[in-house]
Amino acid sequence: MVLINAMSLYSAGFTAQTLGFTVPRTWAVGLNAAISLFLGSLLMMSATGFLDSFVSFLALLSVTFSAWVGVFAVDLLRGRAYDPAALLDTTPAGAYWYTGGFCVPAVAAWGTGLVTGLLFTGVEWFAGPLSTTWIGHQGLGWAVTITVSATLYAILPRPADRTGGDRSLHF
Predict the structure, then answer these.
(1) Out of 45-49, 60-64, 107-111, which region has the weakest mean confidence (pLDDT)?
(2) What's the CA angle centered on 74, arms 102 and 112, to 5 degrees?
(3) Radius of gyration (Cα) for the chain, nearest Å?
(4) Structure confidence at residue 170 (pLDDT)
């Protein structure tokens, strides 16, 4: 478990650097460790039981990841081909820099899908206003999330990159 957690913290520190936080890796790992320790302690002191808290965590995590799955699936179905070398350039001059380093249509679809999915999600310590509907009772907030984020990303204007050629399918 210690090895797995060390690898996870190292990966999270690397992700923080990738997102643009210009701190040494040891600081990024240390900050992630402090946040994990704080939130873990808070959970252990306030939780009434481990299993319910764990299931709640997994349910909320599934909604979060499902929103990104919807966006990613549409991108894959479009047949978009990425330039591997250009993907490594994370500077403002990079081909995939988009707007301020973010692909606005993708982030908008992800955020909208996430919020919509949370409306249907009910867990131990959080209940969306639509969690009492049939969809909410069946635990299908994640399915709503995928559907909304995929649909929205499919209808939003396609992001333009600076690779010089659009080798993707159009739909």
Answers:
(1) 45-49
(2) 55
(3) 19
(4) 43
pTM for the full predicted model = 0.69
**DSSP string over the chain:** -HHHHHHHHHHHHHHHHHTT--S-HHHHHHHHHHHHHHHHHHHHHH-S-HHHHHHHHHHHHHHHHHHHHHHHHHHHHTT----HHHHT--STTSTT-TBTTB-HHHHHHHHHHHHHHHHT-EETTEE-TTTTSHHHHTT-HHHHHHHHHHHHHHHSPPPP-SSS---S---
Q: Report the alpha-carbon distance of residue 139 to residue 60 in Å, rounded.
A: 11
The pLDDT > 70 percentage for the chain reads 87
Determine the Cα angle at 16 with ends 13 and 18, to 5°. Answer: 110
What's the CA gap between 124 and 51, in Å, rounded?
A: 10
**What letter represents residue 127's amino acid?**
A
